[in-house]
Design brief:
4 helices, 12 strands, globular, single chain, 4-stranded mixed β-sheet, alpha+beta
Length: about 280
């Protein structure tokens, strides 16, 4: 993941102590519910601000989305008082990083591979994270700072972006499919296999003192689409969306109307049912 080297403007409403409201997502219905065994994801705190205690790990992770029977929910503290889960294959090795520019990242690497096969990144409320999403979401590009344009250039034709309907203008989202042997500078899983990603932007509002300022933070997840990983990839992205929304609600009191996680989750599931596009 490429992380901006400087913070163009501090985000004043980012709380020093974050309290997450959801560590486990409860099932919407018994027919759609899924459960995965958990395993530890090695946690690396990037700075001293990433040591807030987290809830204990659950033995089984419960989600409203169906999950493959062999999938494992790797879990670690997020450094901000919460705990996050990333779904992956049982032979994966998971590492998490927190505290770097107020974000949190989990990556799963598979045997014999040098780059991750699964990745998810949570933006914790810094508007400098806007470049993470403006590459794929035209609606937030106007809010980028002058130093952001290289990151905000639309992706090439080898990356296919599908805008998603979330029911919330303050939550633009997109599915991104990257063709094989194409490297995306933001998505660490790209470069060999085809990759599917989901990108969420959280519009946190403006500043009365500066009409040109807009606070937008981004979270995203990406994973490889191979015969061995596609089913787990689809489930992992769906679970991530619910966690990312909960993360924002807990960190900066992001207002949610309806159930955007369900809408985005259905779009991801539709892609899994007919991936050829």
């Amino acid at each position: 993941m490429t992380v901006p080297s400087t913070i163009s403007r501090p985000f004043t409403i980012f709380a020093a102590c974050l309290v997450l409201t959801a560590g486990v997502v409860l099932p919407a219905s018994a027919a759609e519910a899924g459960t995965a065994r958990t395993a530890a994801c090695r946690f690396v705190a990037v700075d001293d601000g990433s040591s807030t205690p987290a809830p204990a790990a659950a033995h089984h992770y419960r989600t409203r989305f169906a999950v493959p029977a062999t999938a494992i929910a790797f879990t670690s503290p997020d450094g901000f008082g919460g705990r996050q889960y990333i779904l992956g294959p049982p032979n994966g090795t998971c590492v998490a990083h927190s505290g770097l520019d107020q974000d949190f990242q989990q990556q799963i690497t598979l045997p014999g591979q040098r780059t991750p096969a699964f990745e998810q990144v949570f933006g914790a409320g810094g508007d400098y994270q806007l470049p993470y999403g403006c590459r794929y979401l035209p609606s937030i590009r106007p809010f980028a700072y002058p130093g952001s344009p290289p990151d905000c250039i639309a992706p090439p034709a080898t990356e296919h972006v599908e805008p998603l309907i979330t029911g919330m203008p303050t939550l633009p989202a997109a599915l991104v499919r990257v063709e094989p042997n194409v490297s995306d500078p933001q998505l660490s899983t790209t470069g060999t296999d085809p990759v599917l990603a989901v990108v969420l932007a959280f519009d946190l509002g403006g500043d009365d003192a500066d009409p040109n300022y807009r606070a937008v933070t981004t979270s995203f997840a990406d994973c490889r689409l191979t015969p061995a990983t596609t089913a787990t990839c689809i489930a992992s992205l769906r679970i991530f969306v619910d966690q990312a929304i909960a993360f924002q609600r807990g960190s900066v009191n992001f207002k949610v109307t309806g159930d955007p996680g369900a809408k985005i989750g259905k779009a991801i599931a539709r892609y899994g049912a007919s991936p050829a596009r």
